[in-house]
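Good morning,

Attaching, inline, the backbone tokens for the sequence recovery test we're adding to the shared suite. The designed sequence is right after.
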């Protein structure tokens, strides 16, 4: 049995709607066996998908096919995420959390005082 890639991504609950899944495939955020493809690409069990979503990148192996969007417990049985992918996501998540915590104060938008100093420095007298 072969199923469309966008239908499977929707049924496996990676995307809320099928059109979102289709757009993700069209824009190159989903790779099948290391290659870009179209939303209508035929998917079979054993295929390896790399899915980029936000900051995360998941590598999953397709175990089963489904055209129906069922409960999350059933959707999780359609695929298995590789151990390397899980470890990499956890590591990157920790790095993001640390980078947010270490951001020095005042590095974002200038304060009123800093803006006055910038104007004094850049404007001619």
């Amino acid at each position: 049995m072969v199923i469309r890639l966008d239908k499977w991504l929707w049924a496996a609950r990676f995307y809320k709607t099928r059109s979102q899944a289709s757009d993700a495939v069209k824009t190159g955020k989903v790779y099948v066996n290391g290659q870009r493809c179209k939303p209508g690409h035929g998917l079979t069990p054993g295929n390896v998908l790399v899915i980029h979503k936000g900051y995360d990148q998941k590598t999953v192996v397709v175990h089963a096919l489904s055209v129906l969007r069922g409960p999350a417990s059933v959707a999780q049985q359609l695929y298995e995420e590789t151990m390397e992918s899980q470890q990499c996501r956890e590591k990157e998540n920790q790095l993001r959390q640390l980078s947010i915590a270490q951001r020095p104060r005042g590095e974002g938008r200038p304060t009123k005082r800093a803006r006055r100093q910038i104007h004094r420095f850049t404007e001619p007298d």
